[in-house]
Amino acid sequence: MKKFSKLSVIILSISLLLVSCKESAEKKQKPDTTLENKLVEKSTPMAVLNANLATESDLIALGLSSELVTKLLAARPFLTMADFNANVAEENTEELFKKLFVPFNLNTTAEKDFKMIPGVGDKMAHEFEEYRPYTSVLQFKREIGKYVDENEVARYLDYVFVPVELNTATENDIKALPGVGDKMTHEFIEYRPYSNLAQFRKEIGKYVDEKELSRLKRFVYLKE
Questions:
Q1: Which one of 2, 19, 147, 219 is most buried, by most CB atoms within 10 A?
Q2: Is 0.90 topped by the overall pTM?
Q3: How far, CA to CA in Å, does 128 sit from each of 94, 136, 154?
């Protein structure tokens, strides 16, 4: 009887050991999704593309038809959001404007038009208009930051711009203009002082074609 009991204990121990080994193996095989979940939680929405700067491949990646992509490329530059809107009237613009847009001039856009920006309703459209005229993007961030967090302010900046005074704008304010990088900022400053916008067109026209020059002209002005 004692021998049988010892044998039973040994068999039971071996069985428990096998079960434990199996559970350990299954845990190792099961993927750890903790990191993956964290990455998903921290992921941020894709930046809104500028309809005047998006490449052909960018537009195709948005799921636009080849016919519409060809149409948009031929119609550029869009000097106003109204021009762009007219070319995509048959699309689901509520969804499209979350991905593709022509930035609004904060100082001249009608309050009602600001509501074309996804997530901007009556109250926020009023606040956009309330603080005009804006002299810099920094001012926009400061004023609108009273109502929404930094992430939302940053999202708005995909949809708006503050025009710059050619002879006095800071380097940072010029760089904040849509599609204006370090090199073009340098050229803007290089030819100061500008006596008129014709001079701006002449000098900057040395570096870009007529279409791009037309796009850039909407971002600048000269004090009278």
A1: 219
A2: no
A3: 20, 13, 14
